[in-house]
Each structure stands twice: as C-alpha cells, then as structure tokens.
C-alpha cells in the first residue's frame, strides 16, 4: 500500500488547546484583543490583561466590567516578571519591537505565544470560527485567504441546522447516561457502547436528537441499548413533541420555488400550445 | 455596552499550531498513530516514530517507507533521553501507565503533549478535519459527540464547492502579486490593499477566483487595482475560459426537480379542472 506524501504539506496542526483554569497573559486592549478575550473566555481560562486604559476598545472595557475572570492592569508590559505563572501569551499591540521582545522572553520560558500581525513570532495562528458551543468549527486557509475563510465560515454557519448545539449536548448526555449503565474503559463493552452510539447518531436526525430530554434518554436506553436495538424517534417520543419540528432548510426552499414556477410555466406553455392546435 | 459572558464557557481554544521543520515525537505505530502521521506531515514537521515493528499498522509502515521525514526506531520508549530536542509529543499506545509516565516527563520539559484516549493527560485534542489544503477546517464538539463531529465534517465536505482549494491558492497568489506592486506593512496603503482584496473576494464567485492564472492576475491588477476598481470576471477572462464552468451544486438540483414536478402536477391539475368545467 504505497502512499503519496508529496501533497501532505503546506498546512498547520489544527488542535483544540485546553485552557481550563489556566492563566493567559494578554498584552493590548484594542479591537483585536477584544476578539481574543472572547476566544479565551470560551476556553474557561483566566486572563491577565495589560494595557493602558486610554487604548481600551469599548468591547474590551465591557469584558473587564463583566467578569472577575479578567485581572486588569492599567499599564504597559513591564518585563519578564509579567510572565510568572503564565501558561499562554497573546500580544495585540501596534509596537512591533515590544511585541518581538515579549515573544523572545516567553519563548525562552517555553510558553506558547501568539503575536498579532507578526506570523514568524507565532507558535500558533487563529482562524475564522463558528461558535455554537459545545460545537466549534475553525476555518484556516493557512494565511492564503483570510477573507475567503470568513466567507466559508458564513456559509457553514448558514448551513448548520438550528439547534445543532442542543443535539450535541443531548448526545453528550446520552453518552454519559450510557456509561453509567455500562461502566468501564475499553474492551468489548466499550466497543459495543461506541457501536450503539454510532448507530443512534447515524439513524436519527439532528432535530430528533435535540429533543432527547431525561425521560426520552431513559426510554431510549431501556428500549434500545438494553435490547441491542436502535428504536425510531417515533417509538420514543409522543407525536405531539415532534409535531411541527420537521423543517426544510431555507437553502432548499429557493431552488424548490424556482423549480415550481418553471414547472408551472412549462406546463402552462405546453397546454397553451396543445389548445392552440385543437 | 454590557456583555453576557455567562455563555462563554465549555469550549477550547481552537488554533492552527505551526510545526514547520519542528520535531514531533510519536510513540506508537497503530491505526491512531497512522492518522497522527498524516496530520503532522501536512504541517511540514519531522517525525521521530518509536514503536516495535510487530505492532505497526500497514498504513504506518507505508508512511515510513514513503518519506525521509519520518525517522523510525523499532523499539519501545526508552526514557527522558527520547525527549531531547523534541517540540511536541504524541502517544498512541495501549499501555495507560507508560502513557502517563511519558506525559509527566514531557510536561516537566514544557513540551506540548497529546496522549490518545486519556483526556486529562492532553494539552490539546484533535477533532474531525476537512483537508483541502491550503484549506483546513476542524470540527470539535469538545468531547460531547465525536460521531456528530464526523457527520458534520461530511456535510461540510459535501457542501464545499469543487476547486475551492484552487480558488484559495489563486487568491493567495493575487495577494502576493499585489504586495509586490504596493509594498510596505500597515498604514493607509495596507488598508487600501486589504479593502481591494476584500472587494474582489466579495464580488467574485469562487469558480472565477479559481481561474486566476498569472495573465489574469496581471490584468486584474492593471485594470482593477491601478484604477481603484473591481472588474467583473467577464472583463478579465475570455468567454471560452468561463464557458461550462457555472454549475449548480447538487444540493440545489434535488429540491429544484421536486419543485418542477410539483409545479407541473399543479398546473396540469388546474388545467384539467378548467377543461372539465368547459
């Protein structure tokens, strides 16, 4: 089985970095910093923000006021002492020289670092992101077309079904409850659990998964897992619950309408020709 | 402008880690390791692979044979000396105890580490990924529904226009050529460059961007950038080049066909009723 590795090049290692209860140092308080703050808070980290108050973006100010998870210092970066106990460094300031100095110091301490606008000083880059927690989707063009990444993000956002985040949460809950019923790591039971979860996710629509409340999860485990089967959603839910829930995505409605009117027009024209001949 | 930070939680920091010419230690050679190898090669890193030959997956073997970027050692992990000069550690072995020991050693050296199947020993997780280099899209459900992440990846893959990677490459080339014409970092010129690129990406279809060869890029810069305008694709390309290139995505064809036949049926029924009345 020979493989062609010649095309395996030119990318990044896209990863979900874990920051829960970690300390992130953010130097700078402008609009780029405001975007960084949202990304860091989502990851459950604490932020130390160093930036003169005069340069704070309104959104940055709002974040500082909104959460005790940000410790704010109204000053510029002071030196290596600011890096003590820090797990990640992000800078978003206009001063290129200071940015490079901070980068050198934090790299010497092996702290992962991102310096806005100076790619060679970055251990990692950010990309366009869809945030529908717990779902996160990141689009990177590896620096070739940030604007296209933004367009692709919008397309993906528009195409995601409403309530997909609920479906994922409910499936997470189902997995947790399943593990309580059939505990243990790995082995045959682990494989059976994984297989059954896969079957549920493959046969149920996202809309139905999103409806899984505690009662429905219990019923699905009783009537499904215990019997080695995957019940249909209509076997688990009352008819009332699913009523009105089936929706055509908007993206299908426009071509369907176009098709309808073309169909009407064609048939009308054909009928007209036939009548004219008679 | 008060912000609600209560929902900013439960996620990860999704980043594009840079590994060009870095050294990645991979311990283990099974099917999970084979997947890791592809991800690392894409990011242009070198790999040191430590795993007894008896446990190598055929795909792992194929990678070892295919590229000098993998240095293979037919043995088990030997100790801290295996971590010298290493920039990232990935383990994919069944031995939980050894995995945890490797993790402890590499964390002591502040080397970013991922241990397959043991989340608490991971600085970062992997997710489902669309790889259409230079485009990379990563889908994470933050551990709630890996199977759903896989389904979402397939949906995104199906919805991406054919040739999107070419469009991104060509836009990257256009940016490079534009920077050669109007060099310099930041300032008003930087803003003007970014604004013009944004206008091009917003007004041109991906299909047209993918057609940008060197001649078309030169013409677009001459007739567009130099005059502060964004020419239409038909002003840049000969008619022949664009002919037959406009395609409806398959996802539109089905609803359009459904609409067409419903339209035909409705009109025929209406005509039939009218004729019957006469």
TrEMBL record, chains A, B:
Occurrences of domain Siroheme synthase central (ranges): 134-159
One GO biological process term is: siroheme biosynthetic process
| Residue spans crossing the bilayer | 248-271
What domain of life does the UniProt record list for this protein's source?
Eukaryota
Q: GO molecular function: any one?
A: ferrochelatase activity
Check the record and name the SUPFAM superfamilies matching this protein. NAD(P)-binding Rossmann-fold domains (SSF51735), Siroheme synthase middle domains-like (SSF75615)
| InterPro entries for this protein | Met8-like (IPR028161), Met8_C (IPR028162), NAD(P)-bd_dom_sf (IPR036291), Sirohaem_synthase_central (IPR028281), Sirohaem_synthase_N (IPR006367)
Which catalysed reactions does the entry list for this protein?
precorrin-2 + NAD(+) = sirohydrochlorin + NADH + 2 H(+)
Q: Which Enzyme Commission number(s) are on file for it? A: 1.3.1.76
- To which pathway does this protein belong? Porphyrin-containing compound metabolism; siroheme biosynthesis; sirohydrochlorin from precorrin-2: step 1/1
In this protein, which residues make up the domain named Siroheme biosynthesis protein Met8 C-terminal? 161-231
Q: Which UniProt keywords apply?
A: Membrane, NAD, Oxidoreductase, Porphyrin biosynthesis, Transmembrane, Transmembrane helix
UniProt xrefs under Pfam families: NAD_binding_7 (PF13241), Sirohm_synth_C (PF14823), Sirohm_synth_M (PF14824)
Q: Which NCBIfam families match?
A: cysG_Nterm
Q: Which PANTHER family match?
A: SIROHEME BIOSYNTHESIS PROTEIN MET8
The protein's name is precorrin-2 dehydrogenase
Species this chain originates from:
Phanerochaete sordida
Source taxonomy lineage? Eukaryota, Fungi, Dikarya, Basidiomycota, Agaricomycotina
């Amino acid at each position: 089985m020979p493989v062609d590795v010649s095309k395996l090049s030119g990318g990044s290692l896209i990863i979900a970095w874990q920051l829960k209860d970690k300390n992130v140092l953010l130097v700078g308080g402008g609009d780029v910093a405001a975007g960084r703050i949202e990304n860091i808070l989502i990851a459950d980290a604490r932020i130390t923000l160093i930036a003169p108050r005069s340069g704070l973006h309104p959104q940055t100010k709002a974040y500082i006021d909104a959460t005790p998870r940000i410790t704010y210092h109204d000053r510029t970066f002071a030196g290596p002492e600011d890096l003590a106990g820090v797990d990640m460094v992000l800078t978003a300031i206009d001063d290129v020289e200071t940015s490079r100095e901070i980068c050198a110091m934090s790299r010497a301490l092996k702290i992962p670092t991102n310096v806005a606008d100076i790619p060679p000083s970055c251990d990692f880059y950010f990309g366009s992101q869809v945030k529908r927690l717990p779902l996160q989707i990141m689009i990177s063009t590896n620096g070739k077309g940030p604007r296209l990444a933004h367009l692709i993000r919008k397309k993906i956002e528009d195409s995601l079904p409403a309530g997909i985040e609920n479906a994922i949460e409910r499936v997470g809950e189902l997995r947790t409850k399943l593990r309580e019923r059939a505990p243990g790591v790995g082995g045959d039971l682990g494989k059976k659990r994984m297989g059954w979860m896969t079957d549920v996710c493959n046969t149920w629509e996202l809309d139905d998964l999103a409806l899984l409340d505690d009662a429905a999860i219990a019923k699905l485990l009783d009537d499904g897992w215990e019997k080695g089967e995957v019940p249909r959603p209509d076997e688990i839910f009352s008819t009332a619950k699913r009523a009105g829930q089936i929706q055509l995505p908007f993206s299908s409605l426009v071509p369907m309408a176009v098709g309808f009117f073309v169909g009407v027009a064609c048939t009308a024209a054909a009928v007209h020709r036939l009548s004219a001949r008679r």
